[in-house]
Amino acid sequence: MIAAPKYLALTGGVGGAKLALGLAQILPPAQLAFLVNTGDDFSHLGLHVSPDLDTLMYALSGESNPDTGWGRREESWRFIETLRALGGESWFNLGDRDLAVHVLRTERLRAGATLSEVTRELNAALGTQHPIWPMSDSPVPTIVQTPDGPLAFQHYFVRDRCAPPVTGFEFRGVAEASPPPAVLEWLGDPALAGIFICPSNPFVSVDPILAVPGLRAALRRCQAPVIAVSPIVAGLAIKGPTAKMMAELAVPSTAVAVAEHYRDLLDGYVIDEADAALLDPLKAAGFAAIAAPTVMLTLADKVRLAELVCEFARQRHAAAN
Ligand code: FO1
User: Going from the N-terminus, what domains does the chain have, and what CATH number goes with each?
Assistant: First the structure.
C-alpha cells in the first residue's frame, strides 16, 4: 500500500496563517504539520506571549480575529483599557480572551512544561488537531538592528510601528537551539511529498526557523520539493513590513528577490498572477515558477491556493523522480 503523502508548512505571522488554514482544510492531521516561528515571542507584563503560534492556533480553530488577523474573535479589551488607565504599559494590545492563553502558557512553562508541550495542550483545548511545532523549545528572540541600536522584535513591530529603518537581524540564542525531534522525523519520512514556505516575511518569520541548527540542512537533504509562495505581490507586501525592509536592506522589493533569498532551498516558487511578467526572469534565473492567485481574502481563496501548491508539489516531485 502506498502511504498517503505528507506535507510540512513553515509559517509565521498573519500571511502565513492564511495559507496554513487553506492547507488544513484539504489535508488531515496525519498528512500535514506546521513548523512555526517563535522569534516574535517575548515576555510581557510577566506573561510569555507567542504571537505566531497563537495566530496559527486561532486560524485553525476558527478563533481568529477577522479585523486584525492576530488575536481572538469576539474580543473585548477591558484588561488593556484598565491597565492604560492605571498608567501601565499598554502599547501591546492583549485582549481579554487572548489573555487567558498567555496566562495559562506562562503558568505551564513555569511548572516545567516545554513550549512544544504547552502548544500541544492549548491546541488540543481549542480543538486543533494538526501537529504544530514551535521551531525551538528554547527562546530565540529576534533582535532588529537599526541605526539607533538594537530593538526587541515587538518593540520594533508594534510599539514603534515598524518605523525605524532596519539594517539587519539577530536571532539571539539560535546557536544553542535545536529543532523539535518530531519535525526531523517528519522530514525523514519517505511519504513526505512537499515542504511549503508560506507567504510570510522572509527576514523575520521564515529566516528564524531556517536558522535553527540542523533545519536548513534537513530541508536541503529531503527528497520532497520545497515550494515557497511569494509574500510580495506587485512590489508590495499584502500585510506587514516585508517590502519596507527589503528597500532598507537595499534588496529590490520584488518576488524575484524573495526567490533569490531562498535560492539554496527552492524546488518551486509561486508568484501572484499580477506578477506573471516575472515568470521569464525567474526561469532565466533557474527557478521553476508558476503564477497563481495568491491574495487570500476568503476561505475559498485559501483553499484554492492550498490546492494549487499541493498540485505544484506533486508536479515538482514527479519531475525530480
Ligand atoms: N500586532 C499589532 O500590530 N499590534 C498589537 O497590539 C498586537 C498585539 C498582539 C497580541 C497578541 C498576539 O498574539 C499578537 C499581537 N500582535 C499585535 C501581532 C504580533 O505583533 C505579531 O508578532 C505579528 O503578527 C507579526 O508576526
Answer: 6-43+129-320 (3.40.50.10680)
